[in-house]
């Protein structure tokens, strides 16, 4: 999301040719930063007042998945609430939730909307809103089970809320394409459209098994810039990397460009080793008016890392390295 507050930043290291580069002091959030956490990863941040706020996936030491609010002055050092978010009823009566994970946060009009993977007879997309990251109001689930990676656009498109998602199964889904859906009211969702599909293995293998939306898309003159994760199945398991696509501004189910090479893939110790090895999983980004962007991602399902880039360079890269 665009930030008037100073976002975390570090220049591209000398000699580095990559379009996206990691923060030298990663990970920024360790696994044990709440008293009960086993891991803190796949989390979402936004500018808030004179700093930042966020919703963090904290799995506890019983390995129960839940989401916690957090605050930061600089976007790097975070105070995460020790207790999970307690929801109040929003646009419906309280809906049962077995677990919550992989949150995203979008500011639309007057409030922050949180979407996450909500355990309701299996995973589907939960929705809540908050004004202050203290009180949260839970709304209707967006979809039937099973679904993951619900990500809202930061503004209405053609007068409707618009959400990306990835229909899935109840397990470690061995398939997955990105769809989008519209809603007039954040309660009823429809007009489902296919957006981005997996690639043939021989074209771009890192995204040949499944793809899922990352953070809230960024509006650029060349289209909506969407960071996404792509997955390959190797002989030792799934490997999650990050790519980017440009979607048509008025009709975002139309993919204009998508990267053939990845922008970031597991390569450091904290991305290759952890509870789930080889995972880079973007869930949010912050950018400023100069076009600097910082991407927040879960690493190895254990910790949170950040990576930097410049939006104009990333847009050029996506256009010039598209399938
Ligand atoms: C997905 C989700 C993510 C996780 C990823 C890799 O299915 O559970 O939260 O990061 O698998 O384990």
Structure summarized in a few sentences:
The chain is mainly beta and 323 residues long. It contains 2 helices and 22 strands.
Low-pLDDT windows of residues = none
Rounded Rg? 18 Å
Bound molecules: beta-D-mannopyranose
Instruction: Give the termini distance in whole angstroms.
Output: 27 Å
Order of helices and strands: EEEEEEEEEEEEEEEEEEEHEEEH
Beta strand count: 22
Helix/strand/pairing category:
mainly beta
The biggest sheet, with number of strands, parallel, antiparallel or mixed sense and barrel status, is:
5 strands, mixed
The global form is globular
Helix content: under 10%
Side by side, the strands of the main sheet go 6-10-9-8-7
Strand content: over 45%
- Structure annotation, total helices: 2
Report the mean per-residue pLDDT as an integer.
Answer: 98
Family: Belongs to the glycosyl hydrolase 130 family.
GO molecular function, one term: hydrolase activity
InterPro entries: Glyco_hydro_beta-prop_sf (IPR023296), Mannoside_phosphorylase (IPR007184)
Protein name: Glycoside hydrolase family 130 protein
Would you kindly provide a written description of the structure presented here, covering whatever features stand out?
This protein has about 325 residues and is mainly beta. Helix content is about 5%, strand content about 45%. The protein is built from 2 helices and 22 strands. The chain has a 5-stranded mixed β-sheet with strand order 6-10-9-8-7, with no helix packed on it. Strands 15, 16, 17, 18 and 19 form a 5-stranded antiparallel β-sheet that branches. It has a 4-stranded antiparallel β-sheet with strand order 1-22-21-20. The site of beta-D-mannopyranose has 10 residues, from β7. Pfam families: Glyco_hydro_130. This is Glycoside hydrolase family 130 protein.
């Amino acid at each position: 999301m665009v930030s008037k507050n100073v976002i975390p930043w570090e220049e591209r290291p000398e000699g580095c040719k990559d379009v996206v580069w990691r923060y030298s002091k990663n990970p920024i959030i360790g696994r044990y930063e709440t008293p009960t956490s086993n891991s803190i990863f796949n989390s979402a941040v936004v500018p808030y007042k004179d700093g930042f706020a966020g919703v963090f996936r904290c799995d506890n030491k019983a390995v129960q998945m839940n989401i916690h609010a957090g605050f930061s002055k600089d976007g790097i050092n975070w105070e995460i609430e020790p207790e999970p978010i307690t929801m109040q009823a929003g646009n419906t009566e309280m809906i049962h939730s077995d677990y919550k994970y992989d949150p995203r946060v979008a500011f639309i009009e007057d409030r922050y909307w949180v979407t996450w993977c909500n355990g309701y007879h299996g995973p589907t997309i939960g929705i809540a809103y908050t004004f202050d990251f203290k009180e949260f109001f839970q709304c209707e689930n967006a979809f039937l089970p099973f679904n993951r990676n619900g990500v809202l656009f930061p503004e209405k498109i053609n007068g409707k809320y618009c959400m990306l998602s990835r229909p899935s199964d109840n397990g470690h889904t061995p398939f997955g394409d990105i769809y989008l859906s519209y809603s007039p009211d954040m309660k009823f969702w429809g007009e489902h459209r296919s957006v981005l599909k997996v690639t043939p293995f021989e074209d771009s293998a890192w995204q040949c098994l499944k793809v899922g939306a990352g953070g809230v898309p960024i509006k650029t003159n060349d289209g909506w810039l969407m960071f996404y994760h792509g997955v390959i199945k190797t002989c030792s398991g799934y490997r999650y990397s990050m790519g980017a696509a440009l979607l048509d501004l008025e009709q975002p189910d139309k993919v204009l460009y998508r990267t053939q090479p990845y922008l970031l893939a597991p390569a450091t110790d904290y991305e290759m080793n952890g509870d789930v090895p080889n995972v880079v999983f973007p869930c949010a980004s912050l950018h400023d008016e100069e076009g600097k962007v910082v991407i927040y991602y879960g690493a190895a399902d254990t910790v949170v890392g950040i990576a930097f880039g410049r939006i104009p360079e990333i847009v050029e890269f996506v256009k010039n390295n598209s399938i």
